[in-house]
Amino acid sequence: MYTIGQASLRSGVAVSLIRAWERRYGILRPARTPSGYRLYDDDAIARLRAMRGLIERGWSARQAAAAVLAQETTPRPRAIDAPEGGSTLIHATARYDPAAVEGALDDLFGRGSFEAVIDDLVLPAAVMLGEAWADGQIDVAAEHLASNAISRRLSALFDQGGLPGSGPRVLVGLPPDSRHELGALAFAVALRRLGVDVLYLGADVPVESWADAATESAAQAAVVGVVTARDVSPAMDVATALRAGRPDLVLAFGGGSAAGLSEIGEVTVLPIRVVEAAEVLRGRLR
Amino acid sequence: MYTIGQASLRSGVAVSLIRAWERRYGILRPARTPSGYRLYDDDAIARLRAMRGLIERGWSARQAAAAVLAQETTPRPRAIDAPEGGSTLIHATARYDPAAVEGALDDLFGRGSFEAVIDDLVLPAAVMLGEAWADGQIDVAAEHLASNAISRRLSALFDQGGLPGSGPRVLVGLPPDSRHELGALAFAVALRRLGVDVLYLGADVPVESWADAATESAAQAAVVGVVTARDVSPAMDVATALRAGRPDLVLAFGGGSAAGLSEIGEVTVLPIRVVEAAEVLRGRLR
DNA sequence: GCGTTCGTGTCAAGGGTTTGTACAATGTGG
DNA sequence: CCACATTGTACAAACCCTTGACACGAACGC
Predict the structure, then answer these.
(1) Do B176 and B261 belong together in one domain?
(2) The whole model's pTM is what?
(3) What CATH number is given to the structural domain containing A109?
(4) Nearest nt to A52, CA vs C1'?
(5) Which of A116, A172, B38, B222 matches a 20 to 30 Å C-alpha distance to A60?
(6) Are residues A188 and A217 in contact, defined by beta-carbon separation less than 8 angstroms?
């Protein structure tokens, strides 16, 4: 929970303007301390950023406020391009326009809580980015630009997601040579927000390192991301190594290509949607 | 058990402030010697560090105290070493103890502003991590754990560092096949805090993508990271491609292996320290 | 074309709160 | 003895509150 000054720093909206927006449009209804100080959560910050992004793209304040308040069907009065999901992001990315990229992400993340937007808006937009790259619509560098921006958002959410050192401990990472970590990171965030003490290992973790981490960390579970078909075989290797070193470990696969992996005994295959995946894994623990 | 002076040293919280926190928020209830001296255990130190970390990340003291108090006294691992630079981080990393890793990073980042700590504390600690991995002291997975944590901190600083869309535009990234992006990210943060509109491309950017980004983004400058000796040749390729496509571009190399690269005409070789490097590049712009 | 209204961002005044730090006077421990 | 503790009070800077107003541009009515 942040005071209004911190909220201003994080959203880029001036303090007096935050208060004005609250007074005039009721866009926020922050909690209050006993002495009357406003307290903003991350959700509120996201809304502020979304509102700012819309205004910078030419919306009037009133319309932007209405759009942010009605987090469903955003009206499109006289906007040049209707913000509908990832296409705005793709355009901004293709133009190498960092302000527009941030604005598009503000819009995506600002439409609701992490859980509300990650599976239906953010990750689909990331997938669209990958497809746009594959189609030659955007260059690798542009794709990097946007992926890094999304990654930074998820990183911030990870660090804000819970206090380390509490809850059951779980390893999350990708098998060797696998590098598309956006999904794994999103899953780690979702898991952390459920009170799990996530050890996020990230991309490209060698098989022996998985085993070492599992034994040394005393984790209760390990989740291996299987993003592409090429990750299937390395993920199997990781699973067998983990089984050998830590037979008691709760083992799970997540990601788009995890479906064909259930052969190895007692490995949970998680749903593709990261929020559900996190809930399923959380249920296996304790 | 430590006296209040020792607790102050180990937590980085001033003596008088520890007492103030106890009085105002009841955050600690230290044992007492018969004569009334306060006695703190490792759990208390950890709470102090957690509180300090939250405050440094923008929470108000009262909110931070509430958060720390709300955290149930989950079984806390072992002792927390005296804070002396990267070795604490290495130990925490080797133990796969995420709370201790965060505590060590709280300590590193908490000793001053970004500019004050990045070159003398944070990046040296990252280098020590790499060396510890090379020496076999820690596993790859452990190194990933800590690197990702540092990367998340830097990401947050990047997003907080300035408003996108203002100031001169600069590309920052690594050449093909180069993946150690901590230094480049730190440099990007330093640059952004100087009011530069940084397009952070991240690791492993192909040569043609550099050229595409340079032409499409209308950037004023491009900074290519040269981390290891193996990056030298790819970085040269990037430089020649950029020169060909955008002769007017301000071109610079940064990183530990950038020294031998000044041959190509009019390429600035930046200092190793990222703060100075950012200032030098800033001076070349406009 | 011109005055008026409206929407919007910004600011000041006057007053309370938070928070880190400092000081005095005094006791403890090696 | 001296460094370090103790409690209690005090304080200044920074922060936040509300109310009300003001400036400026865009839209509107005449």
Answers:
(1) yes
(2) 0.79
(3) 1.10.1240.10
(4) C9
(5) A116
(6) no
